[in-house]
């Protein structure tokens, strides 16, 4: 068993705000104003999507470098959806400045399904919670 990532959040006086830290990196989390927050930082599902799209970008760049292919600049974006029936899903979109042939388009789609964060989200994940 190995620890892959570690994070901490410390609640702040302002409702919904917290200071998140990962080693030397620190930033705020909050809720949007429409939910009573100050919108001073990303909300929890924003971080979930940021994790997915950043992992997608990094994985694609590693793969392309390994294959000796220049992907050029590209963008990954995602939206998280939920409906009244309790279904939840993410829609992820990629756009490339360089034109990709059909073979590479299919490889990109295949690789996206194999990124580490994608694989984690696609399977059931146990979350163990304890009081310290």
How is this structure best described in words?
By secondary structure, the protein is of the alpha+beta class. The chain has two domains: 1-42; 44-122, GMP Synthetase, Chain A, domain 3 (2-Layer Sandwich). It contains three helices and five strands. It has helices at residues 44-67, 102-112, 116-122; strands at 8-11, 18-22, 25-29, 74-82, 88-96. The strands form two sheets. A three-stranded antiparallel beta sheet has the order 1-2-3, with no helix packed on it. Strand 2 and strand 3 form a beta hairpin. The model has no long low-confidence stretch (mean pLDDT 92).
Outline:
The chain is an alpha+beta fold and 132 residues long.
Record the SSE blueprint.
Layout: E1 8-11, E2 18-22, E3 25-29, H1 44-67, E4 74-82, E5 88-96, H2 102-112, H3 116-122
Notable characteristics:
32% helix; 2 domains; GMP Synthetase, Chain A, domain 3; 132 residues; 3-stranded antiparallel β-sheet; globular; two-stranded antiparallel sheet; 5 strands
């Amino acid at each position: 068993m190995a620890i892959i990532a570690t994070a901490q959040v410390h609640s702040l006086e302002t409702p919904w705000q917290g200071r998140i830290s990962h080693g030397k990196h620190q930033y705020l989390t909050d809720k949007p104003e429409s939910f009573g927050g100050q919108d001073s930082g990303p909300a929890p599902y924003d971080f979930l999507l940021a994790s997915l799209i950043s992992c997608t970008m990094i994985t694609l760049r590693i793969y392309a470098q390994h294959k000796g292919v220049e992907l050029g600049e590209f963008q990954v974006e995602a939206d998280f959806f939920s409906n009244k029936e309790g279904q939840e899903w993410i829609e992820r979109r990629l756009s490339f400045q360089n034109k990709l042939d059909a073979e590479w388009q299919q490889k990109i789609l295949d690789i996206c399904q194999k990124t580490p964060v994608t694989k984690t989200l696609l399977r059931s994940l146990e979350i163990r919670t304890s009081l310290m």
